[in-house]
Amino acid sequence: MRSLAFALIAASIAHSAAAFQGGHRDIYHDHAGRDLHKRNIVYNGQIANAYDFVIVGGGTAGLALAARLSEDSNTTVLVLEAGDTGDAVADSINVPLNAYFSGLPGTPYDWAYTTVQQPNANNRALPWPRGKVLGGSSAMNGMYQVRPSKLEVDTWAGLVDGGKDKWSWDDLFDTMKESESFTAPSSDVQQLGNIQYNANSRGSNGPVHVTYPGYMVPLVGNWTTTLADIGVAVSEDAYGGNNWGAFIATSSINPTNWTRSYSRSAYIDPLPPRSNLAILPNATVTRLVFDSNTNNLTATGVEWATSASAARQTIKVNKEVILAGGAVGSPHVLLHSGVGPSDVLKAAGVDVKLDLPGVGQHLQDHISTQVTWKTTAQTANSLRTQNLASGSGDSPAFNSFINSATAYVNTTDLLGDYTAQFKQQVAGQLQASLASLVPSSSAEVKKGYEAIYNATLGTLDTPVGQVEILLSLTGPPSGGSNTLSIQAALQHPFSHGRVYISSSDPFTPPVIDPQYLSHNADSVILREGLKLARKLGQTAPLSASIGDEVSPGSSVQSDDDWDKWLAGQIGTEYHPSCSLAMLPRELGGVVDADLKVYGLANVRVADASVFPIQFSAHLQAPVYGLAEQAARIIRATYNGVGWPSANSNASSTSTSSTSAPSATTSTQADHNGAIAAAPRVFALAIAGVLASLLL
After folding, report:
1. pLDDT of residue 589
2. Across all residues in the chain, what is the average pLDDT?
3. Active centre residues (catalytic)
4. pLDDT at 345 > cutoff 70
């Protein structure tokens, strides 16, 4: 019967292709399309009319999920991605240093969202770049591969029924390792950067390459020593569950060619052709189509279009829809499907299918700004400028340099003996915050805010980092002098916002209101982080290379000075999350521990929107871990083995007896991190890998 099903899929291709109206800016280097086919990306619209799993969003999590689910050859998978392939801007994506000088923000490959005006940020409407391209934000981010702490992950797991069985630190640690292949730095880079690491905490066979840059700016070597001199501990292993303190972070870089390793290049490009996998760019999902059962709605189709003026098309769903559009995209789709707070839906003119008050709520983000000085030392920016001026060009190793010197400082590092009193004051503000800061009238959502608030409060007297401190060596010169900056980023906001819609048109951008700095504790923590950044610039050995302070300058001294200045400077650290929180439904939750949306029979969410709390980490690594775990959960459900499953690891194969094992079901992770194929398609796999290296 499965062979008949695949025959029907092939027969339906012509119908779908005829309806396709999308054009591809990115098809320019392979007119025959042979190279492109090896990566399972559809350039001509030829897709079937039904799939077992339809993944909405071809970003960080979406492509990882697609690769894992399609390992089962008797399962069909379609990815619908609103953005283009990225082929036409391969250098902007692949060259790490280009992230700072010719990256994708502000281009057609960026959703280019903007928040509503933020009253506590000088009434500014702030930009929110998000990747609109295959690979999503993993194709345009700063490539930090940083993990959250055990304390934070276990706190998350304790907030939802069943969470401790699937989302404890041990679970996420395992899947984060599964997603990566770690390569140690060269001895020269390790010495110059004063790098410490523990390879036992890292993965060795995953798709995403993780390493240190091939070139190290010498100034980085002063980072951890300077932090130690002001009393911040230096971490010998920031990836094993204790991520606090100072360290040099790894980055998602492939050391074989010094290119960005992101979800497309890691999970998709190395694959041989899979007849059960299709990835369609330029396909914006407009809504989910449900049956008429109002008690437990079943998604029977996914509606999409190539543009606002194009005809809407619908793909039939045989098993599940998996939303992987991120903290903005996933709630946007649910809301336009009639799932969310009824007052929001009615105001936007969308028929209410399911009143689920938590959709779009609990939105949290990291906010940051920086202290900048003139410096007499060479920076990445100054070295790049010299190379361009001389016409000598830059080596791939040099172009792999990205900022990686970081530290997660805790409340004691920031407030000292005032920590206990500060925690008590924040605890005392809970009721006032519930009354004035929750952007919902739902009692369930307010209970959820209280649960998240108390969970965040519980981190204040632990070693967990409250502010991330980053060294930036890629900023522009000032007054003819090189500059360096030390950034400070709030990690656990007490200010929560929301994502919602104001129109029934799915091509109208959603409304984003993070309510930055609405809780005064956030201002206090960020202010103290900036003071610490200034103190670092005045401390040896880093201070030996630092000149005059450019910003904010000597006029900013008092707490009031800092608060006024930072209100005009803060912006996103590009880590929005929590808008479809994994919480009990009675706490305004949207998904359960199996990632299933409450009230929907066959819709899951697998992206950063499901985290109920913010982590002291960049979100790329935990999102990859989330996607790997989601694949385990889903495959265990349909392979008939239950949870936990001995066959739910990266190399698991289908247990179905309806189809003989194929090259798809026998895939496994090889030592280079590519998802390898069985011998009979080995030549095709090699061709796919070589093609990916040329992009």
Report:
1. 98
2. 89
3. 575, 618
4. yes
Contact 77, 317 (CB under 8 A): no
Among 363, 297, 311, smallest CA distance to 497 is for 363
Q: Where are the beta strands (DSSP E) in 111-244?
A: 113-114, 127-128, 144-145, 180-182, 208-210
Alpha-carbon distance of 529 to 238, in angstroms, equals: 20
Q: Is the pLDDT of residue 297 over 50?
A: yes
Tokens standing for 303? 């509606």
User: Higher confidence at residue 157 or residue 681?
Assistant: 157
Each residue's pLDDT tens digit, 153-168: 999 999 999 999 999 9
Question: Cβ neighbours of residue 139 under 8 Å, at least 6 residues apart?
Answer: 86, 93, 104, 109, 131, 133, 260, 262, 263, 264
**12 has a pLDDT exceeding 50:** no
Arithmetic mean of pLDDT, 465-469? 98
Report pLDDT for 612.
98
**Mean pLDDT of all residues in 397-414:** 97
Q: What is the pTM of this model?
A: 0.90
Residue 454 tokens read as 């108390």
Q: How far apart are alpha carbons 586 and 45 in whole angstroms?
A: 42
Please state the rounded mean pLDDT for residues 308-330: 98
What residues have CB less than 8 Å from 685, skipping those under 6 apart? 270, 271, 272, 674, 676, 677
Q: Locate tokens 């679970």: which residue?
A: 171
Question: Which tens digits make up the pLDDT trace of 550-590?
Answer: 999 999 999 999 999 999 999 999 999 999 999 999 999 99
Query: Regarding beta strands 339-340 and 354-355, do their DSSP bridges make them parallel or antiparallel, or are they unpaired?
Result: parallel
**Parallel, antiparallel, or unpaired for β 245-248 and 467-472?**
unpaired
pLDDT at residue 391 in the model: 74
**Contact at 8 Å (CB) between 268 and 47?**
no
Determine contact, residues 265/148, Cβ cutoff 8 Å: no
Alpha-carbon distances, residue 460 vs 360, 438, 455 (angstroms):
26, 21, 10
DSSP assignment letter at 268: I
CA distance 67 to 86: 18
Integer Cα distance of 66 and 631 in angstroms: 9
Give the number of residues written for the chain.
Answer: 695
Residue 424, helix vs strand vs coil = helix
d(CA 329, CA 335): 10
Half-sphere exposure for 439 (CA within 13 Å, toward CB):
22
Yes or no: say if 675 and 274 are a contact pair by the CB < 8 Å rule. no
The span from the CA of 672 to the CA of 244, in Å, is: 29
Q: Give the C-alpha separation, 295 to 289, whole Å.
A: 15
- Are residues 59 and 135 in contact, defined by beta-carbon separation less than 8 angstroms? yes
Nearest to 305 by CA among 80, 107, 137, 131: 80
Is the predicted pLDDT of residue 511 greater than 60, yes or no?
yes
Strands (E), 291-346: 299-305, 313-323, 339-340
- Phi, psi (rounded to 5 degrees) for 340: 160, -165
Burial of 5 (0-12, 13-18, 19+ CB in 10 A): middle
> How sure is the predictor about 388, in pLDDT bands with cuts at 50, 70 and 90?
confident
